[in-house]
C-alpha cells in the first residue's frame, strides 16, 4: 500500500531493491577483481578496499532482502528509529567506500606512472577495474543514503 510520503528509492521500494542489488553486484565484482589471483596484500590501500567491500556486501545484501520483503508484502518500513540506523549505516559505508575507491585508484595511478612500473599490466588492469567497481558501488550507496535521508524528516 503506497503512502503519500513514499520517496522512490527509499527503503521498502522496488527502486531501493534495485539500488541494493546493484551495490551488492558491484561490490562483489570489486572484491573479486582485487583478490582473485592478484597479490593485493602488498599495498595498504588495496587491503583497505578488500576490507570495506567485505563490509558493504553483507550490508547491501541484507538491505536488499529487507527491501524485497517490504515490496513483496507491500509494507514499507517507516519507523524513524530503524530508518535512522539505515541512513547512518549507508552514510558511513558510503564514505568508507569512496575513501577505498579513491585510495585504490591513486595507488594504481602511481604504480602505472612510476619510472619503473611496479606491477605487470595484467595486475594493474585488474586493480583499475576493481577501483571502478568500487566507485560504482559508492555512487549507488550514496544514492540510497540520500533517498532515505530525504524520507526521514517527513516521518
From TrEMBL:
Residue stretches making up the Casparian strip membrane protein domain:
11-140
Its transmembrane ranges are: 40-61, 82-107, 127-152
Subcellular location(s): the record lists: Cell membrane
Topology relative to the membrane = Multi-pass membrane protein
Question: Could you name the domain of life of the organism this protein comes from?
Answer: Eukaryota
Q: Which UniProt keywords apply?
A: Cell membrane, Membrane, Transmembrane, Transmembrane helix
- What's one Pfam family the UniProt record gives for this protein? CASP_dom
Family (UniProt): Belongs to the Casparian strip membrane proteins (CASP) family.
User: What quaternary arrangement does the UniProt entry report?
Assistant: Homodimer and heterodimers.
Protein name as annotated: CASP-like protein
Q: Which organism is it from?
A: Citrus x changshan-huyou
